[in-house]
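Quiz preparation item.
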């Protein structure tokens, strides 16, 4: 599994903030520096969002890459439309992209409409598919399910992502317009998040990548601020999508494109994990479709966006109410069907030998009971159980736990002075200071 989330170890101060917020326990701090367990990373970008030292980032392509192709196409995610507070004209944004040097613009929102229409057809006609179907639009969610919830893999919608559908159509249109060969066309996706940046380079549902480069929405936003001012007034009519596709930018937008279907929309990776656990245990009410967005508020909350996600979501909602409906032709779901079967990628596998795996699991449980259970993160692991697992797998030591270390120091010193080396909340047997809260002097 390749990733776009990277660490700048020189800037890391070992604060463990990312460790405590990673939803898949993919980060450890060792020797004062964080590192990612790649097999567990789903590129959700939570570590980028919470890092106080800005040492984590999503690797995207520089704008200079446009010079590598004689003809370039911009694929703006619909969340880009919510980044600008002072314009309600999507055409002005698209004209600004042409002003940046792109030869053509093809909206991901248009691809989203095709996927929504294909989803309607599948739900209405294919009764053999398990219910509820789970949206495949968020790559972080797809990776999470393949890693942690393999029983739910058959529930994933067997359709490619909207940006992939838009890219395939854009390349055909660009070939027809330019007369160039397909490989001479540079298709660049403007991504709001790290997960989609990874999915453009390493697709999970297609045999070959259909996007030539991925640009950070923040980088594009900075350039657009100047090029939009130079766009003609009125802007040319470039927008081909309607509220159905643009609505995908916010949480609940995909669900809104499925009228009459029993749906539920959930955003935020921690909330999604709880919902998937309930679904796996058969505790969810009858549903036909689940829209799951790893980022809070949907794609407008991606770590590569520039605007406040709540402001951006309100902007998208306003746009979808004022935009005219576009009548894009419904195509067969086979047109957007996945080409590869998803594979379970276990990251919590203890051993290939089932007997040895059971032995290690028993040892982990034994160690967990010996640890204090405070999940303080001082050991560099997110929880006491994670540390126990690290010890059994050989990537951690019992002395990494400051409480186990204290016990050994007390034995060696023969006194309680080892407590002096612990943070105040964890010291034992201390006298309350004079004037402490709740006590009379």
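Solution:
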């Amino acid at each position: 599994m390749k990733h776009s989330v990277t660490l700048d170890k020189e800037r890391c101060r070992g604060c463990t903030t990312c460790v405590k917020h990673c939803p898949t326990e993919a980060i450890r701090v060792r020797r004062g520096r964080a590192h990612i367990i790649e097999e567990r990373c789903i590129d959700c970008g939570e570590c980028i969002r919470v890092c106080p030292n800005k040492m984590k980032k999503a690797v995207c392509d520089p704008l200079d890459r446009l010079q590598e192709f004689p003809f370039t196409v911009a694929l703006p995610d619909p969340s880009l439309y919510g980044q600008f507070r002072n314009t309600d004209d999507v055409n002005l944004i698209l004209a600004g992209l042409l002003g940046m040097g792109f030869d053509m613009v093809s909206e991901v929102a248009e691809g989203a409409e095709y996927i929504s229409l294909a989803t309607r057809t599948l739900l209405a006609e294919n009764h053999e598919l398990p219910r509820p179907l789970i949206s495949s639009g968020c790559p972080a969610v797809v990776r999470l399910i393949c890693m942690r919830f393999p029983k739910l893999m058959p529930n994933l919608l067997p359709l490619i992502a909207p940006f992939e559908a838009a890219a395939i159509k854009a390349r055909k249109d660009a070939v027809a317009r330019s007369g160039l060969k397909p490989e001479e066309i540079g298709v660049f996706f403007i991504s709001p998040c790290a997960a989609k940046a990874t999915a453009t380079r390493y697709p999970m549902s297609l045999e070959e990548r259909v996007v030539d480069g991925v640009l950070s929405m923040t980088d594009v936003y900075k350039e657009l601020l100047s090029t939009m001012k130079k766009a003609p007034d009125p802007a040319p009519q470039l927008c081909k999508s309607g509220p159905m596709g643009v609505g995908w930018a916010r949480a609940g937008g995909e669900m809104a494109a499925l009228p009459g279907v029993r749906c539920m929309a959930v955003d935020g990776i921690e909330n999604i994990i709880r919902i998937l656990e309930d679904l796996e245990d058969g505790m969810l009410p009858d549903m036909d479709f689940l829209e799951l967005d790893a980022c809070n508020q949907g794609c407008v909350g991606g770590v590569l966006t520039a605007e406040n996600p709540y402001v951006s979501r309100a902007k998208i909602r306003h746009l979808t109410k004022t935009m005219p409906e576009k009548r894009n032709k419904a195509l067969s779901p086979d047109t957007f069907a996945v080409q590869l079967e998803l594979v379970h990628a276990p990251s919590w596998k203890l051993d290939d030998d089932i007997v040895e795996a059971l032995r290690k699991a028993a040892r982990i449980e034994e160690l967990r009971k010996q640890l204090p259970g405070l999940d303080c993160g001082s050991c560099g692991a997110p929880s006491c159980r994670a540390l126990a697992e690290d010890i059994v797998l050989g990537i951690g030591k019992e002395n990494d736990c400051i409480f186990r270390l204290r016990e050994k120091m007390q034995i060696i010193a023969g006194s309680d002075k080892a407590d002096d080396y612990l943070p105040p909340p964890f010291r034992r047997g201390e006298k309350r200071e004079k004037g402490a809260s709740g006590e009379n002097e």
